[in-house]
Inverse folding.
């Protein structure tokens, strides 16, 4: 399985209003629940009026479109990273999964996945 490293610096933050999000940005993920409005975005596109944020994330993407019937793909990847004491923030889309790790752990995470047989592109 191939994993693509993405070159973006990312921020995970909480907002009061969806109106603050730059929807023309190249990459962003929005999550809304009854408790919060969360945003993952390019650090340079972080809205000014966030209620909380954490900078310093990098991302990788599982290449290709994953069928919904596939089981354990994200679990295997996060298990490998957990064994290396690397925390993750995962985001799923219709097509695939994105795994975010802190910048200081990014190279270590990629090396661990490559050692486990994943092809890093």
């Amino acid at each position: 399985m191939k994993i693509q490293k993405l070159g973006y610096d990312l921020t995970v933050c909480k907002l009061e209003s969806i109106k603050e999000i730059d929807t023309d940005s190249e990459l962003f993920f929005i999550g809304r629940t009854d408790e919060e409005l969360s945003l993952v975005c390019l650090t340079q596109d972080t809205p000014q009026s966030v209620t909380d944020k954490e900078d310093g994330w990098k991302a990788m993407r599982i290449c290709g479109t994953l069928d919904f019937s596939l089981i354990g793909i994200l679990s295997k990847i996060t298990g490998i990273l957990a064994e290396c004491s690397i925390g993750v923030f995962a985001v799923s889309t219709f097509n695939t999964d994105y795994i975010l790790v802190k910048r200081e752990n990014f190279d270590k995470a990629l090396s661990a996945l490559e050692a486990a047989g994943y092809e890093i592109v």
